[in-house]
Amino acid sequence: MQLSSVALTFGGNPVFDGLDLVLQPGDRVALVGRNGSGKSTLMKVIAGLTEPDQGTRSLAPGISVGYMEQDPDFSGFATLGDYATQSLDPAEQYRVEMAAEGLDFDPALAPERASGGERRRAALAKLLAEAPELMLLDEPTNHLDINAIAWLEARLRETRAAFVLISHDRAFLRALTRATLWVDRGQVRRREAGFEGFEDWRERIWAEEDEARHKLDRKIKAEARWAVEGISARRKRNQGRVRALAALRAERARQIRRQGTAAMALQSAAPSGKLVADLEHVDKAYGDRVILRDVSQRILRGERLALVGPNGAGKTTLLRLITGEEAPDRGTIRRGTNLELAVFDQSRAQLDPDASLWENLTGDPLMRVPGQADQVMVRGSPKHVVGYLKEFLFDEAQARAPVRSLSGGEKARLLLARIMAQPANLLVLDEPTNDLDVETLDLLQDILSEFDGTVLLVSHDRDFIDRIATTTLVFEGAGRVTAYAGGWSDYLAQRPAPAAQAPRPERAKPRTAEPQPKPKARAKSGLSFTEAHRLETLPDEIARLEAEIAKLSELLSDADLFTRAPAKFHKATEALGARQAALEAAEEEWLTLAEKAELAG
To answer: Which CATH superfamily, name and number, covers 275-347+424-596?
Structure first.
């Protein structure tokens, strides 16, 4: 597929201008860029669904292109399976059944009864079953659990087709891509390497841009001084030089400054008690469906707990039990003191889709400023609504637009703006990474790393879990939940050795016996089941922190780092401080538990 001199404008600045692009057989391309930069638009141009204003799109004879729609039209189809098999011969329809099993949706389900996630999975199954020579996948991992993501990753790794991926999932992109297309301010750059290393490449380009802009600014300043001084010195100006100055200024005006990152910040409320929640032998079921069985877990202040497992396994239910929105069928849940809660829900239900962004902020009782219709209360201080929205990369025109007009990433940013306006010491984040671009994910990760409260996180983004979690709760099926120290990679290292093919979680064997056989061991050691587990897993956590500290220290030993990449230097310095504090806390916890066990023995 080839695009030649493509230009496209949706009012205002052009989305693309003079774009040339070639996709070859077997290409495995990551398509990356900020939310709103034009990634999905470019993908629709490649698919032939959006006509450019200028330029041509050429496709080699006999090549088919498949596009995974984010909002597929199910009109006229009785089931998800009917939609997915619409272009297949009866002999090929088994492919949809295979994809449905791997992606975990029911082909017999009627579209009107299906969730948005199930409808998107059906669209993904349709694309995979049709097996075109060029596959275009726009955020295919959204609404997939980790097992389905692993299944899709394996399928794409085996395919001979070319594909282009838009995804916020770094681990997914790193595993699959061999080239990168970066959409940035109307320009598309290609790098003949996968997503690994993209961020270093981007920073180098931005540094070169900044240096060139600085040189241009100095040249304009010098020429402008000459233009003024030359009048009095010679009474006659060199008109060629004046025209050159005008050309320099026009060039500077054409340069589009990079969009900054959102000015997100969290303010911790007064510290909660050391104990956030203590669950003992908790059961929860809905009818005959067991969600949680004999779950015991203690959550302490400052912990970052990631909940991982298949869709429908009970992750959101456990969050609702911890926060008191639901009650257990059996067992006890003791909650700590002075808890100030902020919740990011995966359905974005806290946002009124028909109200404007302005109304969604000023209508929040916690953000309302009495007598000031254009002000919101942000971490204890009044701030103009538009000014606060601009901190989250919304422009003034969007302030009065309805929420339903926003993209998924923009809705996520607006919800973050709401929950970050109030101090909190307990954050509950249910799928916060969906639709966010890489830069916003980086910023959110940095904020959470510095937050000295407690974080409960549900996510299928393995890289994000690795960067954030101190403990991972894995939902292993049949109501079983097992705690592992660290993030996703730590869980993989600690779990029992998998068979030749990794089993689905509901069939996985638990790492430890269930809590109920433990009374004798608990009495003998003087530790609760959770404490005994922490004592066992803390050495691995301490070793991981020591390794991260060593890596960061090595990075900061580069004497030229501050000059070459000041942002990277500051980020590494802050990360080092956070890891050192976490190491100190982990060592203190281990000493306390070891002493308690020794005294009891």
So the answer is: P-loop containing nucleotide triphosphate hydrolases (3.40.50.300)
Tell how many helices (H) and how many strands (E) occur in the chain: 19, 21
Q: What is the pLDDT of residue 522?
A: 39
Residue 273, C-beta contacts closer than 8 angstroms, at least 6 positions apart:
301, 336, 337, 338
pLDDT for the residue numbered 517: 38
What are the structural domain ranges in the chain?
2-200, 275-347+424-596
Give me the mean pLDDT over the 477-495 stretch. 91
131 Cβ contact partners less than 8 Å away, ≥ 6 residues apart = 66, 95, 159, 161
User: Could you tell me the fold of the domain covering 2-200?
Assistant: Rossmann fold (3.40.50)
Asked if pLDDT for residue 516 goes beyond 60, the answer is no
- Backbone torsions φ then ψ of 378, nearest 5 degrees: -120, 110
Same fold, 2-200 and 275-347+424-596: yes
Strands 471-477 and 368-369, bridge-based pairing: unpaired
- CA–CA separation, 554 vs 425, rounded Å? 33
- Please state whether beta strands 330-335 and 275-286 pair in parallel, antiparallel, or not at all (unpaired): antiparallel
Highest mean pLDDT range out of 104-108, 342-346, 449-453, 513-517? 104-108
* CA-to-CA dists, residue 369 to 342, 360, 383, 497, angstroms: 19, 14, 9, 57
> Which whole number is the average pLDDT over 320-336?
94
Asked if residues 262 and 415 have their Cβ atoms less than 8 Å apart, the reply is: no
Average the pLDDT over each of 47-56, 215-224, 391-400, 451-460 and give the range with the smallest value.
Answer: 215-224
Give me the amino acid identity at 300: L
DSSP structure class, residue 9: E
CA distance 20 to 187: 10
Rg (CA), the chain: 27
